[in-house]
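tool_call: predict_structure(chain=1)
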Amino acid sequence: MLERHIQTEPQLIELCAELADSPWLALDTEFVREKTYYPQFCLLQISNGHIAASVDPLQIPELGPLLELLYTPDIVKVFHAGRQDLEIFHNLWDKLPTPLFDTQLAASLLGLGDQIGYGNLVEQLLQHTLEKGHSRTDWSRRPLDEAQLRYALDDVIYLGELYLKLKQMLQAEGREGWLQDDFDQLANPDTYSNPPQDAWKRIKGRQQLKGVQLAVLQALAGWREQEAQQANRPKRWILKDEVLTDLARRQPKELAQLEKIRGLEPGTIKRRGELLLKLIADARALPKEQWPRDKRRAARLSANQEAFTDLLYGCLRLLAEQNNITPAALAGRKEIEALVGGERDLEIMHGWRRVIAGNQLLQILEGQCWPTFDQGQLTLTACPPQE
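tool_result:
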């Protein structure tokens, strides 16, 4: 395979011309985001199985030829666990490359492991062990040495082989189209948008809050998200999650009370204390009907519902085994609890997960089929119609 490191616009134009007729392109990115809100795009690796190249966006100001290639609708773009890579495309160019294929999602559907890493999948399917020595590289520093570029290229050299092998395996199982809903979700711009009004839903520890406390958390988290986006700085540099939840829980009314919040620095109180107090007061003044509700917070189940959850989760394990995939790839216990509690807008009720398990679990809930033991084996049996 030909290998290149692209650092100039003429080199990029030549590379894109050579790749233009490819039926698929394996893609990976390297980025850093320790000191920023948005990931800093540092390197793109690309391969069509014959050519593997690393493209340096820090050296090439004009990436037009590359973008034209990547947004060509006739070429399948292949990623492994591509959500963070695709976030870069969304943030920089407000557009996602389609059609796409994610090898991690395909591996999960084929029973090769839930959220399996790229290196493990290469070793499992291609019997090759990848070098792991540069996983903590600062990709923003230049120049990159040969060992770093070698490590980066490995992420796409074997990705194409994985794609072809996994696609063949999916075809053999009759599952090639089952992942389309997952791929459509990856290609949905809403997947990568972070509206400030929804930031509270991602706060660690919010499950311990309720009522007006969630309204305060929504106001504080929304303000922090907006500040982080505008300044392009990590959210934790502004206020940590535990500080937000503590403020929402205690709801201080005076500057002196802010000083008792653990982790809230004196400098932050001096600069932003009055603003924090106003955000808290305004949120407290909202009418009850405007308080947010945490839909992901599971309602307390009755003893009967808990028992039914146990039953359904056992059936889920059976269906996973029958289809040679892990139960975790279908659903976790929390999702089964939500299903028993009456929710239907769940992952297990969409796409291939519904085909494999969702429909049958719903039939059990509705009394249309029932698990039975036959010679020590658990089976799902259709219930006879009631007269």
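agent: The first helix runs from residue 9 to 19. Proceeding to next step.
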